[in-house]
Write a structure and sequence with these properties.
Strand content: under 5%
Oligomer: single chain
Distance between the termini: 29 Å
Helix content: 40-55%
Number of strands: 0
Shape: globular
Radius of gyration: 12 Å
Number of domains: 1
Structural class: mainly alpha
Protein backbone atom coordinates (compact mmCIF):
# COMPACT_ATOMS: atom_id res chain seq x y z
CA UNK A 1 0.00 0.00 0.00
CA UNK A 2 2.88 2.35 0.62
CA UNK A 3 3.79 4.69 3.41
CA UNK A 4 0.78 5.56 5.57
CA UNK A 5 0.91 8.66 7.75
CA UNK A 6 1.05 7.44 11.35
CA UNK A 7 -1.62 8.56 13.77
CA UNK A 8 -1.75 8.75 17.54
CA UNK A 9 -4.49 8.61 20.15
CA UNK A 10 -4.54 12.42 20.03
CA UNK A 11 -5.95 12.17 16.47
CA UNK A 12 -9.32 10.99 17.80
CA UNK A 13 -11.28 13.98 16.47
CA UNK A 14 -9.28 14.30 13.25
CA UNK A 15 -9.97 10.64 12.41
CA UNK A 16 -13.55 10.64 13.68
CA UNK A 17 -15.31 9.80 10.41
CA UNK A 18 -12.93 7.00 9.45
CA UNK A 19 -12.93 5.60 12.98
CA UNK A 20 -16.73 5.82 13.23
CA UNK A 21 -17.16 3.78 10.04
CA UNK A 22 -14.61 1.21 11.23
CA UNK A 23 -16.35 0.92 14.61
CA UNK A 24 -19.76 0.41 12.99
CA UNK A 25 -18.49 -2.13 10.44
CA UNK A 26 -16.21 -4.11 12.76
CA UNK A 27 -17.96 -3.88 16.14
CA UNK A 28 -21.51 -2.92 15.05
CA UNK A 29 -21.43 0.06 17.40
CA UNK A 30 -22.12 3.75 16.84
CA UNK A 31 -19.47 5.96 18.38
CA UNK A 32 -22.17 8.30 19.74
CA UNK A 33 -23.73 5.43 21.67
CA UNK A 34 -20.50 4.18 23.26
CA UNK A 35 -19.25 5.65 26.52
CA UNK A 36 -16.33 8.03 25.98
CA UNK A 37 -13.84 5.81 27.81
CA UNK A 38 -14.92 2.78 25.76
CA UNK A 39 -14.69 4.78 22.51
CA UNK A 40 -11.12 5.73 23.44
CA UNK A 41 -10.25 2.07 24.01
CA UNK A 42 -11.66 1.16 20.61
CA UNK A 43 -9.77 4.07 19.08
CA UNK A 44 -6.53 2.83 20.61
CA UNK A 45 -7.07 -0.50 18.79
CA UNK A 46 -7.92 1.38 15.61
CA UNK A 47 -4.67 3.41 15.87
CA UNK A 48 -2.60 0.24 16.21
CA UNK A 49 -4.26 -1.36 13.19
CA UNK A 50 -3.93 1.88 11.18
CA UNK A 51 -0.24 2.27 11.93
CA UNK A 52 0.47 -1.39 11.09
CA UNK A 53 -1.54 -0.95 7.87
CA UNK A 54 -3.76 -3.83 8.98
CA UNK A 55 -6.98 -2.16 7.81
CA UNK A 56 -8.58 -2.66 4.41
CA UNK A 57 -7.07 -0.23 1.92
CA UNK A 58 -10.30 1.77 1.62
CA UNK A 59 -9.82 3.08 5.18
CA UNK A 60 -6.72 4.96 4.03
CA UNK A 61 -8.70 6.88 1.38
CA UNK A 62 -11.29 8.89 3.28
CA UNK A 63 -13.03 10.14 0.13
CA UNK A 64 -13.66 6.60 -1.17
CA UNK A 65 -14.58 5.42 2.30
CA UNK A 66 -17.20 8.14 2.72
CA UNK A 67 -18.58 7.53 -0.77
CA UNK A 68 -19.05 3.85 0.00
CA UNK A 69 -19.99 3.86 3.69
CA UNK A 70 -20.92 7.46 4.56
CA UNK A 71 -24.51 6.45 5.29
CA UNK A 72 -23.21 4.60 8.35
CA UNK A 73 -22.48 7.98 9.93
CA UNK A 74 -26.13 9.03 10.01
Amino acid sequence: MGKVKKITEEDFFKMNKTFSIWLKKKKDKLVEEVAAAKARKYFKKFVKKWNKEDLQSIYYDEEKLLDKYGELLT
